[in-house]
Design goal:
The protein is mainly beta. The protein has 2 helices and 19 strands. 4% of the residues lie in helices and 49% in strands. The radius of gyration is 33 Å and the shape is rod-shaped.
């Protein structure tokens, strides 16, 4: 026996017809992941070629698109600039007209931070064979350091070695610069202070 259709539910279907058009759309690289410690993607330096592409698809969809992403570009653990070709990440109903692959240059920059340390005690570096007594004024100074954010966020004042080298001075009064022992990639954020050194015979 043959089957017969008794009823269709719903009996009315709304069909929306859309026109197929081509639009110029700006390209945005989809950069993901965290670079190496102390580095960040230099967003202003990212280069994209081409910057715009022609995309064909339904007009209603394309009119809502201000940009089109590339496939993800992973920068996890990176610190050196690199160049990569990436496909456009398009919905199945969209298709590229002129370019499917995008050439992308991704540079990096050091992510620096400045920290201020108050009343850092000073040490005096001397010649143990010299028959002198040494005094400095002030005995504590304020310092500002610049370096990678991850390093300075865990850097404590107790880790900071600030000193005055008095080993080559004879008896008298002098104005001498403060010197520092710092971890790699950390440097003074401003000119180091000077202190008054007094050298007296014992």
């Amino acid at each position: 026996a043959s089957a017969r259709v008794q009823r269709i539910q719903p009996d009315v279907v709304r069909v929306v017809l859309d026109t197929v058009v081509t639009e110029r759309i700006q390209v945005t690289p989809d950069i993901i992941g965290e670079p190496a410690i102390g580095y960040a993607v230099h967003r202003d330096g990212v280069q994209i070629e081409p910057r715009e592409v022609s995309i064909k698809g339904p007009s209603t969809m394309l009119k809502q698109m201000s940009t089109v992403l590339t496939e993800p570009i992973d920068v996890v653990g990176r610190s050196l600039a690199f160049r990569k070709k990436a496909r456009l990440a398009l919905e199945p109903v969209l298709s590229p007209v002129d370019h499917e692959w995008i050439d992308i240059f991704v540079p990096f920059k050091e992510e620096l931070k400045t920290e201020h340390f108050k009343k850092v005690p000073l040490r005096i570096l001397t010649d143990p064979k010299a028959a002198y007594r040494w005094r400095i004024e002030p005995q504590k100074v304020d310092l500002s350091l610049s370096g990678p954010r991850e390093v300075l966020e865990t850097f404590h004042k107790d880790h900071l070695l600030a000193y005055v080298d008095a080993s080559d001075f004879q008896e008298g009064k002098y104005t001498v610069p403060v010197q520092l022992e710092l971890p790699p990639h950390v440097s003074p954020a401003e000119e180091l202070p000077q202190v008054e050194l007094t050298v007296e015979s014992v």
